[in-house]
Predict the 3D structure of the following.
Amino acid sequence: MSLRNRFLGVLTAVMIGAAAMLVGVAPQPASAQPQEAAPSAETTKEVVENPYGPEAMWKSGDFVTHGVLIILGIMSFGSWYIMVTKLFEQARLNAQARDAKKSFWTAKSVKDGVSGLKDRSAFRYIAETGINATEHHEGALLEQIDLNTWITMSVQRAIENIGNRLQDGLAFLATVGSTAPFVGLFGTVWGIYHALTAIGIAGQASIDKVAGPVGEALIMTAVGLAVAVPAVLGYNWLVRRNKVAMESVRTFGSDVHMVLLGGSGRMAAETAAKR
């Protein structure tokens, strides 16, 4: 009987333990549904307006600041105007060179070739100058000069006049390229001087009181460089294009010179034979 009682006692203890385990892992009734996550508040980016800039500099600047900006503006406008104008002028000269190559040298005579060129053509101006020098080589003084030398001088003067015309405006570009940075630097020095003076009077030397006005004054230097760099690049580019254009002008002048000398030699020989 004791063995049986022991077996029943162990079986009862096992059943009680299993029941306790089942009760412990049983899912408990949900007292409340999990709350949904609250929507996150939208993050708004705060835009801080910069109190220091070109507009603020113009409004708070004195007559020196305004004068420097106006001078730089005139320099920039003049530089771009000259560059665009000279580009059109060089393009027109190249077109005239092509027309002269097509029509002038296929004419029967120099006068016929001149009449086939446009009125304001640089190549017509050279040819007309040579013709006038050939036809007007009379007088006590001019007859002392050889005809070859007289025609050479006349054609060379015409070529130099065209070259001088192509050089118009380039001196302004060179001046702007060399002086605009210094004009902007002067405006920067003037702005820093006034900024430091105002800081000294206020007695506050914090970073916000120093960095803002000084940074605003540096805008002048940036404007000066922005004006000078295009002027320098445009000057170098136009000078190079002028050299290329003048090559065709000099070649045409030399050819016209030789043609006029040949024609004058034939005319002089025919006159001598008639005599």
